[in-house]
Amino acid sequence: MKVAAIQMVSGTLRDDNLRAARALLEEAAQGGAELAVLPEYFCVMGHKDTDKLALREADGDGVIQRFLADTARALQMWIVGGTLPLQTTAPDRVRNTTLVFNPTGACVARYDKIHLFHFDNGRELYDEGRVIEAGNTLVQFDLQARNGRRWRVGLSVCYDLRFPELYRAHARAGADLLLVPSAFTHTTGQAHWEVLLRARAIENLAYVLAPAQGGVHENGRHTWGHSMLVDPWGTVLAQQDQGPGTVAGVLDAERLRAVRAQLPALTHRVLP
After folding, report:
1. Within the chain, where are the H helices?
2. Do 106 and 73 form a contact (C-beta atoms < 8 A)?
3. How far apart are CA 157 and CA 247, in angstroms?
4. Distance CA 124, CA 141 (A)
5. pLDDT tens digits for 184-229?
6. Are 81 and 57 in contact (CB under 8 A)?
7. Burial class (CB in 10 A: 0-12, 13-18, 19+), 63
8. Nearest 5 degrees, angle CA 114-CA 137-CA 133?
9. What domains appear along the chain, each with residue ranges and CATH number?
10. Which of 64, 86, 255, 263 would suit a FRET pair with 20, their CA atoms being 20 to 30 Å apart?
11. Residues annotated as part of the active site
């Protein structure tokens, strides 16, 4: 099955970002992708954290959700909507939410980011907890490819990548593919992005597809990019360093089976 990670350099205007996302999703579909995954915050990278509040949507309705549903239906493709801000019961909080749409345009899964990024090196300060309400539920969904093969897909977002227990739980649930839509900072991404992605693939014997924000944004933030597809042996199959684009590759069911048979580490676990 061919898949694509969509890399963006999202700006401050929602509609401009949706137009950019649509063009990249069309590119992925024309290239034969059955699944395309957008990056975290694909719909907005605001000047300040609270800008998300103005764009929050109710679960099941809104401009961004209609865009994702309509595009999945039009392109006959599975689309994972990076993240978008969904309403909570608190007026000053949103959930940072991944929604999955199948080729009919139906929303089949929702994951609210569990781990909230905090970083302060004296020059850069990020604190997602000021605006985002954390989720608490692990989510997988099943994707049936056009050839009939069913893939179990585990959802995660960005900072989740630093918590291997989340991915091991996905592995225990049978995940074949792990998705990591992200907006890693240039500082943390340069240091840790690739090694963490490859580690999650190797230790869980699964493919990892990680679309990212990659470039200098209107708000001055510099994101690391390097969207990539990693195979279960930890080999980087495709990547793009900076700038918008599509990173495409093939998930090979036989390769997955062979790696798991040759090194059945998941069956050798001793600790829970």
Report:
1. 14-30, 51-55, 63-75, 164-172, 186-204, 253-262
2. no
3. 18
4. 36
5. 999 999 999 999 999 999 999 999 999 999 999 999 999 999 999 9
6. no
7. middle
8. 40
9. 2-267 (3.60.110.10)
10. 86
11. 40, 113, 158
